Amino acid sequence: MREYLPPHIGAFWFRDITGSTANEAAIRIAQKATGNTDVFSLFLSHHGQSVAATGVSGNAFRHRSFTLPFPGSVKVPAPDCANCFFGQTPDRCRMLCATRVADFAEYASSGRIAALIIEPVLGNGGNLVPPDGYFRELRRVCDDLGILIVADEVQTGFGRTGTFFASTGVAHELRPDIITFAKGAGGVGIPVAGVLMRPELDVLEPWEHSSTAGANPLSLTALEETVNYIRDHDVLDNVTTVGASLLDGLHALARDHVTVSHPRGVGLMQAFDLSDADAVHRFLPVAKRHGLIMRGSRYGFGRAVKVRPPLIITPSQVEDLLDRLRAALRTFEEEGS
Ligand SMILES: Cc1ncc(COP(=O)(O)O)c(C=O)c1O
């Protein structure tokens, strides 16, 4: 996998099989390496199901029924341009969602910040692709404050955005100190996860973070074979090429259907919005009737419909997908969207 890593990433920790615990490992690494406690994360983020991973995730509906203590968790506004926390438009915002992280450090944290964890494209939160310049500014602010950056690439990794990691493509200016991965790393659904980092952050002892099934031979074989498959079948080129036609197609659908707005995405990590979460609930079964398995965002609380075909989808299958989507939208609108 080395050939696909940013050059400054040289160490790994492969003792996890879920993205949730890989993110926990990343938090422990950042805390141990810096001697600090707090973790910044984004509104709308999703980092997993464990206490710490849920604790740093930015959605109240996942906390409401429990006590999930993460005392040093500080949530900062996401780069959600369609719904800007600062009431700005992209042409005049001066990237406040990145620069104001310094204010959260000054006024909302303990002053001892270990890391900022970020999904390069916020997946569950609504497939939010940050605007140009966001990653560069965020990196600058974190460098100024001595905060490590963890890129949670559990969704974006292994080719989903057209490069092996988003951190080597659309998010290369983030220059994360730590990268976590899972999901697609197992290829056909075999659980695999891991943490990649700068060599000097390789600070954990085995007894500080490991589990029985971590680094099991099946998972490691699946990981190796997935990397080989991606390389040998030019999967990254395919994702970039067909992803561009898919996005064009979603833009065309948005022009023709008033119910569809904000087509967006990178590679084969795409989405569009319907009017609200209720419309998404009603649309998904219609899409299924047209042969499309699609999912909403924010566990049903969001208005995005995610479009996530397999990375090996062919150009003609993308045409078929778009035809089915168009037909599903027509049915949805006829049935009283
Ligand atoms: C960005 C992100 N991080 C972490 C996780 C948690 O991964 P897992 O379900 O393997 O624990 C997910 C799962 O959906 C995710 O999308």
From TrEMBL:
<keyword id="KW-0663">Pyridoxal phosphate</keyword>
<dbReference type="InterPro" id="IPR050103">
    <property type="entry name" value="Class-III_PLP-dep_AT"/>
</dbReference>
<dbReference type="GO" id="GO:0030170">
    <property type="term" value="F:pyridoxal phosphate binding"/>
</dbReference>
<comment type="similarity">
    <text>Belongs to the class-III pyridoxal-phosphate-dependent aminotransferase family.</text>
</comment>
<dbReference type="InterPro" id="IPR015421">
    <property type="entry name" value="PyrdxlP-dep_Trfase_major"/>
</dbReference>
<dbReference type="InterPro" id="IPR015422">
    <property type="entry name" value="PyrdxlP-dep_Trfase_small"/>
</dbReference>
<dbReference type="Pfam" id="PF00202">
    <property type="entry name" value="Aminotran_3"/>
</dbReference>
<dbReference type="GO" id="GO:0008483">
    <property type="term" value="F:transaminase activity"/>
</dbReference>
<keyword id="KW-0032">Aminotransferase</keyword>
<dbReference type="InterPro" id="IPR005814">
    <property type="entry name" value="Aminotrans_3"/>
</dbReference>
<keyword id="KW-0808">Transferase</keyword>
<dbReference type="GO" id="GO:0042802">
    <property type="term" value="F:identical protein binding"/>
</dbReference>
<dbReference type="InterPro" id="IPR049704">
    <property type="entry name" value="Aminotrans_3_PPA_site"/>
</dbReference>
<protein>
    <submittedName>
        <fullName>4-aminobutyrate aminotransferase-like enzyme</fullName>
    </submittedName>
</protein>
<dbReference type="InterPro" id="IPR015424">
    <property type="entry name" value="PyrdxlP-dep_Trfase"/>
</dbReference>
